[in-house]
UniProtKB/TrEMBL annotation:
PANTHER family reported in the protein's UniProt record: DIAMINOBUTYRATE--2-OXOGLUTARATE AMINOTRANSFERASE (PTHR43552), DIAMINOBUTYRATE--2-OXOGLUTARATE TRANSAMINASE (PTHR43552:SF2)
Highest taxon, organism lineage: Bacteria
Top-level EC class as recorded in UniProt: transferase
Organism: Gracilibacillus boraciitolerans JCM 21714
Protein name (record): Diaminobutyrate--2-oxoglutarate transaminase
Entry's EC annotation: 2.6.1.76
Cofactor: pyridoxal 5'-phosphate
Family note: Belongs to the class-III pyridoxal-phosphate-dependent aminotransferase family.
InterPro entries: Aminotrans_3, Aminotrans_3_PPA_site, Dat, Ectoine_EctB, PyrdxlP-dep_Trfase, PyrdxlP-dep_Trfase_major, PyrdxlP-dep_Trfase_small
Pfam families per UniProt: Aminotran_3 (PF00202)
Amino acid sequence: MSKNLDIINNHESVVRSYIRNFPTVFTKAKDHKMWNEDGKEYLDFFSGAGALNYGHNNDHMKQKLVDYIMSDGITHSLDMASTAKAEFLQKFYDVILHPRNLDYKVMFPGPTGTNTVESALKLARKVTGRTDIISFTGGFHGMTIGALSVTGNSMKRQGAGIPLQNTVTMAYDNYVDHDTLVYLERFLEDKGSGVAIPAAMIVETVQGEGGINAARFEWLKQIEEICRRWGILLIVDEVQAGIGRTGTFFSFEAAGIKPDIICLSKSLSGYGLPLAVTLIKPELDIWKPGEHNGTFRGNNHAFVTATAALDFWMDSSFEEEIHEKSEIIYSFLEDIVEKYPEINGEVRGRGFMVGIASEVEGFSSKVTARCFELGLIMETAGPNDEVFKLFPALNIPKEDLQRGLEIIEESVKGLVKDPVTN
Ligand SMILES: Cc1ncc(COP(=O)(O)O)c(C=O)c1O
């Protein structure tokens, strides 16, 4: 047992989690690879749970950051003005918002995903004067109280220790065999339903933690229409599905919708540095100055790397690259499900946000554990960890993508052939 692992296990709270699935001490990471203390190499199909869509320590971003640090550029500035922030805002407008015909004000909440979600919920309530939020089965939005109140997972919800209020959960797409939106709209129109018209609906286009459930574009379009019809604000939580993960910069682009409020974080900084934004339709930007505040909103190092990361989006080549490789991943997963019927598998997801849900209890956790032994880092998702979830860096070279897929197949094959000893 490693001394460093001992130190961490002795001193860190039992709340630690990923270390339990990947019990080794990492020392170095580059692009889509990580190394541990013994020099063992791992392919990273986890990517910081979506915070490292461009891999680890990307050379271009690193150089910009090192230059900035060496020139004593501002590190911390609350929400005072800095050149790093101005450059980020300008480039985000030029490269992302303007070409997509999207008109949003950019708010900096705290630097994490749950911070942007909290700010979105607060703003929706303030704008509409209503209290309730509709969220969806399987949704995951973060660990602070507001975000937990719109999160489905019962274990996480219980952690709140208080009643989670002013929210109503509705069925996500394909949650049942019926059209879930007929049911949703009936609740809104029926004065006897017990459900008040909410301030907002909050939705993920593909649910990450909830089990890689991808809503159909048609469903998302109808959600938008229902919101418009009833004067309900539409919040799309892009924290995990955004920044290219499903194939486009915003995951909702392909559905042709325009949310009122957008939550972005994880891979926004591109370098794994904490950064979040809440994008707000201009007419909804009715905050009083300082009404939503936070010490770490001016993370200038993250602005620098986020600005550099936008170079990936200057033309359509990166999207094309993601598309091409995601087809390789998807057909690999379909083959696995067909070749190994024993796992009762179902391919889920979209783009680079995909996985296999297995009906065999504990199977997906065993696959990820076996992959780890074989040098591949991958996590599970879903309320019962029933999905093994492939999250490689979007710019992973095809050869290493292929190598990772081979490790996954080897793990699945081993477990199917030898289920008793595993
Ligand atoms: C969709 C979604 N929203 C919000 C969050 C919370 O982000 P953070 O962990 O940075 O608070 C996550 C985290 O996984 C997420 O997947």
